[in-house]
Specification:
By secondary structure, the protein is an alpha/beta fold. The chain folds into 4 domains: about 130 residues, Response regulator (Rossmann fold), CATH 3.40.50; about 130 residues, Alpha-Beta Plaits (2-Layer Sandwich); about 150 residues; about 60 residues, Arc Repressor Mutant, subunit A. About 60% of the residues lie in helices and about 10% in strands. It has 23 helices and 10 strands. Strand 3, helix 3 and strand 4 form a beta-alpha-beta unit. Helix 20 crosses helix 23.
């Protein structure tokens, strides 16, 4: 329903027009009538008038002055002029002022006046429809914006650029200046309630508290995890920014003390081309994070020491499998991330091979204990999303890491099986101490069981003797060292816990050839394969 205001200094005309419009129900109008422009302004201030039908010639403030006032303060209102003078100069002045709908003579038939008001109603309808379309479009943009932001930053994380156009940041409503470094943080909230609501409350709370000093942007990139970018508004240099960030860290610790979360902040300002590396570092910390570690500054890591550590494929597969069996999540992800970083530096082929190994480890584990339903995972999804052909190598690795973390969190079956835990604990110990005393007595003391019980338990659970498993693991490591190193036979024997003559004897018994023959045969095959490939 629209509201019509009739203004005429002749009460009989104003009242009769009011009766006319009230008698026509199809117009759906609420009609007001006043007798001068001042009364009209009073009504306009109280009611949201849509159409004003006003006389031009009135004492005091005339219709044209009233129309100017309407154009200044009630722009959404339409004006229809009513006059007893057929003077074109009036029409010219009205048209120059703008905002009017029609110009009608008082001596015209009622149909002409009704038609002029109907014209104003039609214009209001069109404006309301256009306004509704704009609101709808804005709502669509607002709903799509977080998705577009997430896609933009996912692309930056997995396909880093040296520069980001400021126009693109403005288009996505990211309040970070593209030509200046910024700080990055990742946070993970732990909640028993509405997870999305709690994350949004946290993010809004941080923004409100820090908006005077920092430009801040965040988005939820994965369930309970958020990425944050902080950029000091007053930026002199990197040193000054770091000093501000020290102060900010203290503020942040106070802000988030009411939340149960883990929050990792990279301790130095970064540029766009380093966002993928820093995101990876922080995300790795979140994987290994205990609940509620608060704010932790992550310094640039020195990898020079562990990069020199040589670990064979056979060794890390056994170690990762053992960690998964025993539920050693922290060690699993620490080892996995180090292996991945070392291999990705050697090229995409090595990293892809590792992704395949990791996929095989988790699929074997899920198959072994039939856990797909329990941890809400799908076999086909795992194979698809962990394949670097269908996504980038980093995306595949992060996907697998997330799913393996879910396995660690959701699978209670293996942890509750005490005998399985004992076997997994044994495997872990054996893999770490292959060159040491692995007698039954030593292992029994380690697991706090009697030698007889441990021997029977292992045979019942695995179908093989414990001594056979130890020999098998030592021989597997021995084969790897024979192929991948130039170590002498006696050096390899010592590394896997044997004297040279026993190593040769056991090796020949298990494989039918001596260690030296195995090395020569493997070397010949390697040469043949390389020649065929070339």
């Amino acid at each position: 329903m629209y509201k019509l205001l009739i203004v005429d200094d002749e009460p009989i005309i104003a009242d009769s027009l009011q009766l006319l419009f009230n008698s026509i129900e199809s117009l759906h109008l609420e009609v007001f009538a006043v007798y001068n422009a001042y009364e009209a302004i009073a009504v306009l201030k109280k009611e949201q008038i849509d159409i004003v039908l006003t006389d031009i010639q009135m004492p005091g403030m005339d219709g044209i002055e009233l129309h100017k006032k309407i154009c200044e303060e009630w722009k959404q209102c339409k004006t229809v002029f009513l006059t007893g003078f057929n003077d074109f100069s009036y029409a010219q002045q009205i048209l120059r002022n703008g905002g009017s709908v029609d110009y009608v003579l008082k001596n015209e038939d009622d149909d002409v006046i009704l038609e002029a008001v109907q014209k104003a109603i039609n214009l209001k309808e069109l404006e309301n429809q256009e306004k509704a379309r704009k609101i709808q479009n804005e709502e669509k943009v607002n709903r799509a914006l977080p998705i577009l932001q997430r896609e933009f930053f996912n692309h930056l994380i997995y396909h880093p650029n040296k520069e980001v156009e400021q126009s693109k940041l403005q288009e996505l409503e990211v309040p970070i200046y593209g030509g200046r470094p910024f700080f990055i943080a990742l946070g993970r909230i732990y909640t028993d309630g509405n997870q999305e609501l709690d994350i949004n409350i946290l993010n809004d709370y941080i923004k409100i508290k820090l908006e005077d000093s920092y430009q801040m942007f965040h988005f939820n990139y994965q369930n309970s995890k958020s990425m944050y970018l902080f950029q000091p508004k007053a930026w002199k240099d990197d040193f000054d920014a770091c000093a501000q960030m020290d102060s900010y860290t203290e503020q942040l610790m106070k802000i988030i003390e009411k939340f149960t979360l883990s929050f990792y902040l990279y301790a130095e300002p970064i540029t766009w081309e380093r966002i993928h590396y820093c995101f990876y570092e922080l995300n790795k910390k979140l994987f290994n994070s205990p609940v509620n570690v608060r704010v932790t500054l992550v310094e640039k890591e020195d990898r020079s020491e562990w990069k020199q550590t040589i670990i064979s494929k056979e060794e890390y597969i056994v170690q990762l499998q053992t960690d998964l069996e025993v539920g050693n999540k922290n060690h699993f992800f620490e080892l996995s991330s180090r292996i991945f970083e070392r291999l990705i530096e050697q090229g995409n082929q090595k990293a892809c091979e590792y992704i395949m190994v990791l996929t095989n480890i988790v699929v074997q584990y899920l198959n072994k204990y039939n856990l797909y339903h329990e941890v809400h995972l799908n076999f086909d999804d795992i194979l698809y999303y962990s394949n670097p052909v269908n996504s980038s190598i980093l995306e595949a690795y992060f996907y697998l890491s997330e799913k393996i973390e879910r396995v660690f969190q959701g699978n209670k079956h293996n942890q509750e099986d005490a005998s399985t835990l004992v076997i997994a604990k044994l495997h872990l110990y054996i893999s770490e101490w292959l060159n040491e005393d692995l007698s039954l007595q030593t292992l029994a003391e380690y697991t706090a069981h009697s030698p007889t019980y441990l021997s029977k338990l292992y045979k019942r659970k695995t179908g093989k003797s414990l001594s056979h498993y130890i020999t098998e693991q030592r021989m597997n490591l021995g084969k790897s060292l024979l192929i991948n190193t130039n170590k002498k036979i006696y050096e390899i024997a010592a590394e896997i816990g044997y004297e040279q003559q026993y190593f040769i004897r056991y090796f020949k018994k298990m494989y039918g050839i001596t260690p030296q023959q195995y090395r020569e045969k493997a070397g010949y095959k390697l040469i043949v394969n390389q020649a065929a490939h070339n």
